[in-house]
Amino acid sequence: MKPDTPIAISRQQFEDAAARIAPLVLRTPLVHSPTLSRMFDSDIYLKLENLQKTGSFKIRGASYKILTRLKRITGGVVAASAGNHAQGVALAASRAGIESTIVMPEWTSISKQEATRSYGGQIVLHGKSVGESLEKAMEIAAQGKTLIHPYDDLDIIIGQGTLGLEILEDLPEAQMIIAPVGGGGLISGLALAAAAVGSIARIIGVQTVVCPSAANALRRGKIKTVHARPSIADGINVRQVGKLNFKIMQALVQHIALVDETSIASAILLLLERKKILAEGAGAVPLAGILGGAVSIPKNSKVVLVISGGNLDSPLLGRILHHGMLINGRIMRIQMQLDDTPGALARLLSLVAKHKANVLHISHDRNVTHIPFFVTSVSLELETRGASHIQELFEEIQKAGYAIYGRHHTDDLLPSSTD
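Given the sequence above, the corresponding structure tokens read:
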């Protein structure tokens, strides 16, 4: 039996919060996806917080926290974040006319630093982790600034919960809402909002297998810091959930599923190709959950996937898309040896073209050890239609007499899943 809800927020409180932050945030669309609905034999909707100001839902909680405490803030605000919370706090503070100091880990990407500065935040780089950055932020707060915690704060939770209120106003018959989980601010707000409006929707969270802090906490019945490895869903790579968030999740969240990096990459690729939606890793984990089977959807049900953000660095996006095409059988890599004679490479490429594959990369190297003189090593990377097309190409190339000595469908572009 689940414990009683540790706190109850009324529908009126959520509506008041939504009205208060309305000048600072967007009411993002809830869109139906025919493609995903056909795939899962259900009605699948996407809540597009990637279209939110600053590219993430985080602006909601930050705005509500700052606006409700505005009269008490005398020395500005301080926050710790590697990305979305940083930008949300910086913009909310600027709009409220107060200064913000954002402590970011030393490894934070330049693009996220610059985005935060563009919203008015003063950047302090400190620490090897967000936890170390948060410790520094607390030191700065002790000097007179107001700390804006990223998740373990009731005002933050209520602000994030306005997203749930919007979902259930647009789709009151929703039967399941699937959201990413890091520290727990978003899913706590969603769960409280669903309870406030009397929704029947099951609230399901999704985390990565490389940082299962909330899933482990719910399974064990207590909070414990987990060892985390790098993830493309860096926005939810939080090693310990918040205390208040944990209590709310215990009472109101039905399940937290775990997904791997490959599933997340596939979800990002699917959203971009089929729906033209750019989602960051954390924003794509709800779709990853149903793609990989970690979350089961009853047939003919109405399901909402919360696409929580779209702040994905361009270099990482390229790597993720390439990896996604590899694991989905859209890219084939082969290595072979050709006679080093005029026209040999042209004949091979003609064969590839005949079977409607697209050459993405080609390497032609005569200076390879352990192969005979007058033989050259050739590596091809081909775009294909899928697994059956790859098999067709492989068989036809072999039938033509070419000696293939390497064939790959995956690579190591994503963060390692080993310690």
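The chain has two domains: 1-328, 330-408. Try to locate this feature in the token string yourself.
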